[in-house]
């Protein structure tokens, strides 16, 4: 007999970034983070896990190619789920597997990403979240998604946030064994469903510095990272949580862009410096300035208010002129060159696409022809 389970898990995009570990083995972060989970129709992993007495070893295939399961991250996830396995009885198929049987049974895992790996968007987040979720169902583990997130975290930190739809917070936790470092859902996928996420594939080149190596170097050398983790992120987490709950797009966009920019500033502050936005920087700068300019110009209805205000309080003009603009789009860049753009609604997304296509006409560059458009939701 073979017992089989298939699961599908979307990837997530951090709007307050995770960057830096306080424990590399358990994957414990130096700060909380918040992400938005994409619609699985656009960027997701589908994983089938199977157990059978006829399997003689654990094996895994990724996009049809066999890969090794011997790495510590895979082994940690397998061990943790096996420890939580419960009895399974399938009368129709005549299968009965006891808790003890799960220790001896071998597994076969087949995993697919629905997005070309070559586009540089393949993410370990969806992969580990899907593996852990599918294994938990296969072995009848009774843990809830937050408990499972603490296991997925040991595969890849950002994976813990993909166990939920909507907006998700990874609480860094304090315990040394990592038991309180897990993900919780802030709001579900219906709460803010007019948001549209566009991923502009700026380059298909694989990143030169992996997140794991990059954050290790940043923790060891960047003073800005320490300041960010202690002083900046706790305030941003609070404000971002409020912006999401109130569907306040202006604050959401301001925080998202600022946090992406600070994450890349930490990378530059690292020794040796990491330039995730370097290889195609002219395009990234063009996308950022396109969004920044557009967000400012959309603020014209507020100019009157800004002028009045500035008469009374000239000293605060600059900061208030920023917060008074009607932002329509937020941008965020992860440890790679592709831009993730979050539009306020469908109208803003359509206008943004027109602007992007104007800045980067399809004929001028093959790489920039690909855009993933997806509603935020699971
Ligand atoms: C920039 O989760 O890929 O995307 O825990 O070492 O596997 P490991 O790193 P990973 O790092 C993601 C970093 C980021 C920001 C984020 O997703 O929060």
UniProtKB/TrEMBL annotation:
Keywords: ATP-binding, Lipid biosynthesis, Lipid metabolism, Lyase, Nucleotide-binding, Steroid biosynthesis, Steroid metabolism, Sterol biosynthesis, Sterol metabolism
Catalytic activity: (R)-5-diphosphomevalonate + ATP = isopentenyl diphosphate + ADP + phosphate + CO2
Residue stretches making up the Mvd1 C-terminal domain: 197-302
Cellular component aspect of the GO annotation: cytosol
A GO molecular-function annotation: diphosphomevalonate decarboxylase activity
Family: Belongs to the diphosphomevalonate decarboxylase family.
Descriptive protein name: Diphosphomevalonate decarboxylase
Organism: Populus tomentosa (Chinese white poplar)
Lineage: Eukaryota, Viridiplantae, Streptophyta, Embryophyta, Tracheophyta
Shown stretch of the complete protein: 6 to 383 of 445
């Amino acid at each position: 007999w073979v017992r089989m389970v298939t699961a599908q898990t979307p990837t997530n995009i951090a709007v307050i970034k995770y960057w830096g570990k306080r424990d590399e083995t358990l994957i414990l972060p130096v700060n909380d983070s918040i992400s938005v989970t994409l619609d699985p129709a656009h960027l997701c992993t589908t994983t089938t896990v199977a157990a059978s007495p006829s399997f003689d070893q654990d094996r895994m295939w990724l996009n049809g190619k066999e890969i090794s399961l011997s790495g510590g991250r895979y082994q940690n996830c397998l061990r943790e789920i096996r420890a939580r396995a419960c009895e399974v009885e399938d009368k129709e198929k005549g299968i009965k597997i006891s808790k003890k049987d799960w220790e001896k049974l071998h597994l076969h895992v087949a995993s697919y990403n629905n997005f070309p790996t070559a586009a540089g968007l393949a993410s370990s987040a969806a992969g580990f979240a899907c593996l852990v979720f599918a294994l938990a169902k296969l072995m009848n583990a009774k843990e809830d998604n937050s408990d499972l997130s603490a296991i997925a975290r040991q595969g890849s930190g950002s994976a813990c946030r993909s166990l939920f739809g909507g907006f998700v917070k990874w609480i860094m936790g304090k315990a040394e064994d990592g038991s309180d470092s897990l993900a919780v859902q802030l709001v579900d996928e219906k709460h803010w469903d007019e948001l549209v996420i566009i991923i502009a594939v700026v380059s298909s080149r694989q990143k030169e510095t992996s997140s794991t190596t990059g954050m290790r170097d940043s923790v060891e050398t960047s003073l800005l990272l320490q300041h960010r983790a202690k002083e900046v992120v706790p305030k941003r987490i609070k404000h971002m949580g409020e912006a999401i709950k109130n569907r306040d797009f202006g604050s959401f966009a301001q925080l998202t862009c600022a946090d992406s920019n600070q994450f890349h500033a930490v990378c530059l502050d690292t020794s040796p410096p990491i330039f995730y936005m370097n290889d195609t920087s002219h395009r990234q700068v063009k996308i950022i300035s396109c969004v920044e300019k557009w967000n400012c110009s959309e603020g014209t209805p507020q100019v009157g208010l800004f002028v009045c205000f500035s008469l009374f309080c000239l000293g605060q003009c600059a900061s208030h002129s920023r917060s008074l603009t009607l932002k329509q789009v937020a941008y965020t860049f992860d440890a790679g060159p592709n831009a993730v753009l979050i539009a306020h609604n469908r109208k803003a997304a359509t206008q943004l696409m027109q602007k992007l296509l104007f800045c980067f006409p399809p004929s001028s560059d093959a790489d920039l022809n690909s855009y993933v458009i997806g509603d935020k939701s699971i």
